[in-house]
Design brief:
The chain is an alpha+beta fold and about 150 residues long. The chain has 3 helices and 6 strands; from the N terminus they run H-E-E-H-E-E-E-E-H. It has one domain (about 5-145): Nuclear Transport Factor 2, Chain: A, CATH 3.10.450. It has a 6-stranded mixed beta sheet.
């Protein structure tokens, strides 16, 4: 197995364990001491550098409204210190969001994320684009349908 294949497999494990399953303690094995969200418009943490505890809090808060969320990885591309991942995401809206009470309906979005790694193969941050407008529109439609 090549180094790029190992790195892709490691990133896929991180996504599954930490983001899909919500095992924030598993992040210890994947993250560097600090993690920077370089570009993620609409994300409350955009532009921030987090320590491990801050990253775990981010995961917990992000999963609160969609506790069954899942990332379906479409493709992984490794190059230099980065791995690009295209993905489809879905989660059932089970927790309230500001202005959007839980509806129990599935919400979906797509995106692309470039994860950055250090020499020890630990994640140091990401650069991401997602369809947050599409999520907002789905939440609005679901609110109107159940309201």
């Amino acid at each position: 197995m090549t180094i790029d294949q190992q790195r892709k497999r490691r990133l896929a494990s991180f996504i599954r364990e930490v983001w899909d399953e919500g095992d924030t303690d598993a992040a210890d094995a994947y993250l560097a001491e600090s993690y920077t969200i370089h570009h993620d418009p609409g994300d409350p943490w955009d532009g921030m550098t987090l320590d491990l505890a801050g990253f775990k809090q981010r995961v917990a808060m992000s999963r609160a409204a969609f506790p069954d969320q899942r990332f379906d990885i479409q493709a992984l591309f490794a190059d230099g210190p980065g791995i690009a991942m295209t993905w489809l995401w879905s989660g059932t809206h089970k927790g309230d969001l500001p202005g959007f009470p839980a509806t129990g309906k599935v919400v979906r979005m797509s995106g692309a994320t470039v994860y950055l790694l250090d020499a020890a193969e630990r994640l140091t941050g990401h650069w991401q684009v997602t369809d947050r407008l599409g999520v907002y529109q789905q939440l609005q439609q679901n609110k109107m349908a159940t309201g």
